[in-house]
Amino acid sequence: MFTKILIANRGEIACRVIATARKMGIATVAVYSDADKEARHVKLADEAVHIGAAPSRESYLLADKIIAAAKQTGAQAIHPGYGFLSENEAFAQRCEDEGIAFIGPKAHSIAAMGDKIASKKLANEAKVNTIPGYNDAISGPEQAVEIAKGIGYPVMIKASAGGGGKGLRVAYNDKEAFEGFASCQNEARNSFGDDRIFIEKFVQEPRHIEIQILGDSHGNVIYLNERECSIQRRHQKVIEEAPSPFISDATRKAMGEQAVALAKAVKYQSAGTVEFVVGKDQDFYFLEMNTRLQVEHPVTECITGLDLVEQMIRVAAGEKLAITQADVKRDGWAIECRINAEDPFRNFLPSTGRLVRFQPPEESMFQSDTSKKLGVRVDTGVYEGGEIPMYYDSMIAKLIVHGTDRNDAIAKMRAALNGFVIRGINSNIPFQAALLAHPKFVSGQFNTGFIAEHYSKGFAAEDVPHDDPDFLVALAAYMHRRYRARASGITGQLAGHEVKVGEQFVVVTLGQEGKNQHTEVSVTDFEMDGKTRSSAVSVNGKSYQISSEATLGQIRVQGQCNGMGFTAQVERGAGKNPLALRIQHNGTQIETMVLSPLGARLLALMPYKAPPDLSKFLLSPMPGLLVDVAVQPGQKVQAGEKLAVIEAMKMENILFAAQDGVVGKIVAGKGESLAVDQVILEFQ
């Protein structure tokens, strides 16, 4: 076994590999860029080596520097994580040539599966179901149309070297096939330097289901059940779960056996994933093979009890698999939510900056009576006070829960999301909460078009209605009463002017444009069992008995309401109003002021102050790097015309004119780092 390994990656996955290596007694070496010198993976590793500037092409993608770091530190093996060099056959071969073990498959396996056209041919030879299509490179759009007509619409046009949704179009007629081919070819040439295109049948109501496989250097290959990855936004996975709520045991077995056959055909060693597209009738077809560890591997670990990183290390060290197919378990249900640094209410624009607060829910993996590991797990590469840089992907953390069944897992995930405190940047937690509460998700009736269908116009606060809005009002009143009770106990108060706690309040829910909602509430304290302080809150004729041991001032509040546990977030002075209480629960957020009846009447008399008119300014919708300003002072622009380009988290975001106008003054310069809502230019 190795005594020291180097992790050629960063962030969450680097920390994940370090955790397993530490458990196995293996020393670790981290590599880092300028942007990551204070990163969590650097602090966790036994050693760390600086490898270059912040952009990944100048650091994490430099094979020479990573190999040099391994030699310098005496690391016997390199774990590539996912992304960066993890599926780079030349890097895997280079490691082998340098006498360093690559903790992943052999270069020939990566090469065979890395090309979509070549991998489909191999899959056919291994008798793996493949989608009807044309698997040779296509010469031009005219030929693409003829092929599409032969296969039958709709068809999917894909770049051979594509990934992450780039170089992919769906065509429903000849015109779309002609135009889609040209667009895919241009995207593929610009993104991957490879403009080969192929066409295949588009599966109706498709689900994205993948089989985790594990192989060793002794010819043994097993499959570790499946993962359901159909909840995707723009071809990027959002929620993953294991097992799938859709496929039957017979389909699972057939998919698993075909995945094993494909892995054996390329002499696969290490952990890998065979992805399938599954139709509404459970007809399944090979999509591609990922020759690396997947982001969503924890859900498989939860239901099988296996540590996939440990298995990868043991296989790379030459060990045989310690289990057979018959030993593979399928216990309980696991769900993973990807917590990303993006603003769902601003069309998921990237959100970078400092994590002013980062308090994940407490991890609680415990053994149940049936010896299943159940609870909450958080995989992350960040920490409170750390920075989310603009140079890499947007993932903050992976939140994983393991329940006895799917309903239990969904309930655990909703509670865990309620307790996940992130401040300083925006996250997609409200969107995740909305997805988990959606009836179609809860029933398991979804496919890869779920988000596009149900959130076609983007995401708004109205898309996550609370099942009991009065509970939020009651919680605001309960917490305000506790703050008043504490204030009443302060010594030295002026006689006759002491703080009175009171029982009658009005909760003012602050709305847009001064349209506030007033709700009369009564709060009565009483003792329960002679120990726990609790309050009875009356709202709109409903009674809420709320108790909590949460310390005043902490954001996460856990307690009981009418005998049921709850987790919510309560923050005083979080918004523009320092007197307001912000309440968050199940993805819904309200801003409230809890006042005396007289105070509420006086507030209603206050005039509404309209916000300033910002229509004459172009504001940055996100933090990022201003890479281009496409206009000049005095230039006339029309609605929809390109004004500027901002780069953040490996994505370019083009800003367009909302209306016709004339550019007045350019305020921000090319190459400047922008904050959210920073002025880029002014119109006359």
From TrEMBL:
It is an enzyme of class 6 (ligase). Residues 609-684 form the Lipoyl-binding domain. One of its GO terms (molecular function) is propionyl-CoA carboxylase activity. InterPro entries: ATP-grasp, BC-like_N, Biotin_BS, Biotin_carboxylase_complex, Biotin_carboxylation_dom, Biotin_COase_C, Biotin_lipoyl, CPAse_ATP-bd. Residues 1-456 form the Biotin carboxylation domain. Residues 120-317 form the ATP-grasp domain. SMART domains: Biotin_carb_C. Its EC number is 6.4.1.3. GO terms for biological process: lipid catabolic process. Its cofactor is biotin. Keywords: ATP-binding, Biotin, Ligase, Lipid degradation, Lipid metabolism, Magnesium, Manganese, Metal-binding, Nucleotide-binding. Pathway: Metabolic intermediate metabolism; propanoyl-CoA degradation; succinyl-CoA from propanoyl-CoA: step 1/3. It catalyses: propanoyl-CoA + hydrogencarbonate + ATP = (S)-methylmalonyl-CoA + ADP + phosphate + H(+). It holds the Pfam family Biotin_carb_C. NCBIfam families: PRK08591.1. This is propionyl-CoA carboxylase. It comes from Paenacidovorax caeni.
